[in-house]
Amino acid sequence: MPKLENIFLIVSAAVLVAVGSALSFAPDVLYHGSGAGLPDMTLLRSDLRSGGALLLLIGLYAFWSALFAQELRPALGLSALTYLGYGLGRLVSIGFDGPATGTLLTIIVLEWILGLIALVFAMRCGAVQLNHQATVA
To answer: What are the residues whose beta carbons fall under 8 Å from the beta carbon of 119, sequence distance 6 or more?
Structure first.
């Protein structure tokens, strides 16, 4: 019977792979679907595609870990960092760039939910320790 952490990682991976693939290979389709268009700027598109490739690789790693790895802690920690990092970045963007649209608010909420679930699972598996005790030999 799969553990809850494995099921979560598969869901997390599916989202990361889908978004990462869309950003890497079809950013215009992704942005058009949310009602926005992308300007014809090579640097901006390069940044979107490279970030998308990173999300794609993290998603593939999380998927592989959920299916084959004995140790889920690194994948859960990486998933938490990815989602919470994006969620935090979006809050910073709201502060600098103005209020978010309904679609963006939904994305922010989903990122924070997935990130916090990953963090809880990672802490439960021992991937994240909030109190570090140093030992002196």
So the answer is: 80, 84, 128
CA-based nearest residue to 72, from 10, 131, 16: 10
Q: What pTM, to 2 d.p., does this model score?
A: 0.85
End-to-end CA distance of the chain: 42
For helices 42-68 and 73-97, angle between their N-to-C axes, nearest 10 degrees: 150
HSE toward the beta carbon, residue 110, CA cutoff 13 A = 11
| pLDDT beneath 70, residues of the chain | 1-2, 127-137
In a domain, 106, yes or no: yes
* 131 belongs to a structural domain: no
The type of residue at 100 is A
Domain that holds residue 100: 4-125
Residue with tokens 């940044």: 47
Tell me how many domains the chain contains: 1
